[in-house]
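Case study 2.
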Amino acid sequence: MVQTRDWNCGNVVTPNHKRKPFDDVRIRRAPTLAIDQWGGTPALAKIVNVNAVGGIVFPGSPLAVTHAELESLAGYWPDIEKSRTEASRLLKDAGAEGLAFELFNRNIDQPHKLVGTWLIDQWSKIGLRVTQRVVSIGPAHEGLRSGKFDVALEHSCNSVVNPLLDVQKCLPHSVYTKNYGRGLAAMGGSRY
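Prediction:
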């Protein structure tokens, strides 16, 4: 018998706030809105170790947002067409329709490359043209630390459910140097 449950890990899509055009909040928000968290996670769960849609804090823990609260946040709206319409409007307003960029990712199939491939498909639905660059773990960490990426697929894993640890990646880079986006916002996430 195999038992499964959610891990205290999450996929984190991190735009590099210091690299143009991701210094523009509209261009960071648009890809967030394009991701179908609610429809995609159950489909991904069939092939990837991704189980639950969640926010920053582990789902179901006392300080986690409720399902209703999560649905009110950008990137978690249940109406994906409304989200993608808003994403397209933001890109148009920013003069970035058809934006091309690179997704920086770890060279590990489960879940990194598979989730990265799915993200690229999600972003194509609003006209983004994204390629994926996968590198081994050492160069991946070096690329994150040095800021040599447009958008990165990261993970946030802690050995215990501790909301104080879970929110660290959202602290300013000056406070928590593992905020590799060098800003305050991360794009959508799913838990595994």
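The first strand starts at residue 9 and ends at 15.
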